[in-house]
Amino acid sequence: MLKIKKVGKVYEGKVAYRALTDIDLEVEKGEFVAIMGPSGSGKTTLLNIISTIDEPTAGVVEIDGKSPHQLKKNELAKFRRQELGFIFQDFNLLHTLTVEENIVLPLTLDGARIKEMKEKASTIAEKLGIGAIMNKRTYEISGGQAQRVAIARAMIHEPKLLLADEPTGNLDSKASKDVMEMLVSINEKEQTSLLMVTHDPQAASYSDRVIFIRDGKLHSEIHHGESRQAFFQKIIDMLSLMGGDGNDLSSVRV
Amino acid sequence: MTFRQFAFNNVLRNKRLYVAYFLSSLFTVMVFFTFANFAFHPVFTGGTVDSKALFSMAVAGGIIYIFSFFFVLYSMSSFLQSRKKEFGLLMLQGASTTQIRLMVFMENILVGFLATVGGILLGLVFSKAVLLIAENVLIVNESLNFYFPSLAIGVTFISFMVLFLFISMFVAFILRTKKLIDLIKGDKQSKGEPKANIFLAIFAALLLIIGYGVALTVKGALVVYAMIPVIVVVILGTYLLFTQLSVYIIRKLKGNRTIFWRKTNMLLFSDLSFRMKDNARTFFMVAIISTVAFSAIGTLFGFQSYLTKGMVQANPFSITYFSYADDTDKDINNELNQIQAILNEKDIHSEMKQIALNYYSSPYRDEGVLFVKASDYNNFARLVGEKEIHPGEKEAIVVDQSSKILSYSNPSDQLMESTIKLENGAELTPTAKIETEILPEFNGYYIITDNNYEQLGSPLRSSMYYVWQVDKGQTDKVVEAGEKISEKVPYKAQSVDYNVYQINKTFGPILFIGLFIGIVFFVSAGSFLYFRLYSDLEDDKRKFGSVAKMGLTQNELKKIVNRQTALLFFAPIIVALIHGAVALTALSHMFDFNLMKEATFVLGSFALIQIIYFLIVRLFYVKQLKHAIY
Ligand SMILES: Nc1ncnc2c1ncn2[C@@H]1O[C@H](COP(=O)(O)OP(=O)(O)O)[C@@H](O)[C@H]1O
Ligand SMILES: [Mg+2]
């Protein structure tokens, strides 16, 4: 499903900065992979490259057999709205639109029929429990609701790959739990591949596999065993083994 | 929600963001419409105004239109700059470049249409007032009645719909979709400080000093030749002043910890340098545009007062009559009677004096030299309250006209150097030279005693000169009489009040148009500043919001914003005021005419308007910040 080979990224500037070195990663269809690492280790950079927000300075990215970075502008736009879904830490909803309009935006851009948009929006809103706030504007809803709206927007066009950068970073633990459970159920039911960057071992423990990055290089990976509790413990151990700056564990909620 | 609905909702629900752009477009349309309303007024199109005035109006209309184009283009592109993140998010959701362009295009057509219609309506509301002002400045005979300006409406509507359509296509085209990451991070990224180079900073100061130096020292006709080079040097100097010198100074201040780390200075200076690239460009543009406005209005205003004041100075008497050398006594009497009849008819009280201007042959001048009896001269001088002249028995006094315009050779110098032989053998030497306007003789003349005058022999030629001094407070009547007199006795008779009236009348439209364009420039400079300020509003809200959490009192906030805004509003205007003052000084050197009063008045009014504008904008800005933070 997702294949990246020898991906590297150098930020040009007064002093060039190497943010990623030789990253190899494969994600299967329907797999849920979490990426962890100290802050500044290159997680967001990697996710931005995969999501075509940024470009790698070395290596190749392949999604479903296509190399998005090689696509022409218009094909890339089409690729984004049909194959990819994004969720950010700060939601990134458009504040000029209502909740419902935000959700159907990818379909609107794709020129879908109104009726189809309405139906899909209400189905997904029911699933995510935001049916009652569909006509509200984005500044009238809470953080947890906003993130659910963002998930709905990321899911409505049934993308093959869902990319999430710290989706629970701005949420309290109850909202985090809800959001993670939704992501997992989508991942399981729709067979959507899911790649998520997180600081939160609790959130990471929902995944099938956790990849650790340090100083822009792959450090190690661990797989989900039998129980979530055991997996959570392994993640905590790995994080303390890796060290990094203490800030990173500040958001740990056990 | 279809894509079209989306684009419309995006504008309608985001009024705040669009309001600045909308208002500046609205204003531009209103200005153009007001001008068209005035230019297409039946009084002008009816043919009573001369073709030169019509031509200058057409040119002015063109200037306003072209300026509107760039102004709207600039407003729009700075508006789009502030929406980078929005575009980035849309693209992330899969919007293609074409779709974004289409959206911007539709938005602009919508905003453009509303601005055009709104601008015309607003213009209609104010049109009566504008016509009233125009009527007073212009001195047209017919009054400018309110009329329904269908032609002006049509022309404005079509011109601006074309303009917006064109700009929409243009902007949709140049809206380069850069890398997504740059768009999404767009509002957080500093455009950076321009690189400050010590040599360029010194060069900036040098250019300005040279430009000013030359402008202030050249005299007379040389001003014309110096003008273009000086303008180029000063524009370049201004550009470097804002991009180099100011950056250099700010950087030096930042380097100085005792200043930079003192209280709220850190916030102020770090912002200044963070925004310096944007600011430098705005400062430069505002300074230049305002300079154009100040200089244009100052020049026209100064020129008008030069002409009218010059006219009044050169003609101390209300009405004059100067006979031709070959006129018979009968001709002269006839014309004098006509003038007197007109004065009587208008019931104008006046005192008349006369003098025979006799020219005597001279080896230096073919046309002869004028000699005047002291008693005759003093007779005239008393009438206007000037000093009497009493030359000695052996001397002659040389008189020069003080209001000579741009003359290089001075014929009266020659009079000073030659001696005068009388018929009784006595010889007179010129002892002093004075300047008055009592008699109309450009080449200078002698005043000698009445006794000596008898010894001059017979004159080469002779003219009669009559003057009437009217009592004060009859200007309107005198203007009417003057018009009649100049019809009945053309060329020979002059009425200064009527001449001044004529100058004002011809100059009126030019002054009005100049004033109009100057104000357009000045106000748009103001809205550039407004844009600059408001494009940082969100950023300021975030920044002051987080500082406020650490403990920033409302007063401190007000103080920082105050300084920040004052700098934005006054740095370029002060530079423009200095530029304008130098330009007007150079102008006054060119005509050798003191423009101090006019320049102070024009520049002072602009400074005052800017201060009021600053106070209003700051009030709202601080209010919005406080509202968002506390
Ligand atoms: N635009 C940029 N220019 C230069 N350096 C950058 C840029 N963005 C990120 N970096 C650097 O790259 C490194 C990785 O950043 P990032 O991927 O955001 O880390 P994180 O793992 O916390 O998400 C950091 O050291 C950061 O300073
Ligand atoms: Mg990150």
TrEMBL record, chain A:
Pfam family, one: ABC_tran
InterPro entries tied to this protein: AAA+_ATPase, ABC_transporter-like_ATP-bd, ABC_transporter-like_CS, MacB-like_ATP-bd, P-loop_NTPase
GO CC annotations, alphabetized: membrane protein complex
Single GO molecular function: ATP binding
Domain called ABC transporter: residue spans: 2-240
Keywords carried by this UniProt record: ATP-binding, Nucleotide-binding, Transport
PROSITE patterns documented for this protein: ABC_TRANSPORTER_1, ABC_TRANSPORTER_2
Similarity annotation: Belongs to the ABC transporter superfamily.
UniProt-recorded name of the protein: ABC transporter ATP-binding protein
Automatic annotation (TrEMBL), chain B:
Membrane association type: Multi-pass membrane protein
Top-level taxonomic group: Bacteria
Keyword annotations: Cell membrane, Membrane, Transmembrane, Transmembrane helix, Transport
Coiled coil: none
One of the GO BP terms on file: transmembrane transport
Cell compartments where the protein resides: Cell membrane
TM region positions: 20-41, 53-74, 109-134, 146-175, 196-216, 222-242, 283-303, 510-533, 566-587, 599-621
ABC3 transporter permease C-terminal domain mapped to chain residues: 59-178
Any one Gene Ontology cellular component term annotated for this protein: plasma membrane
Main location: membrane
Family indicated by similarity: Belongs to the ABC-4 integral membrane protein family.
PANTHER family per record: ABC TRANSPORTER PERMEASE-RELATED-RELATED, ABC TRANSPORTER, PERMEASE PROTEIN
Protein name: ABC transporter permease
Annotated organism of origin: Ornithinibacillus bavariensis
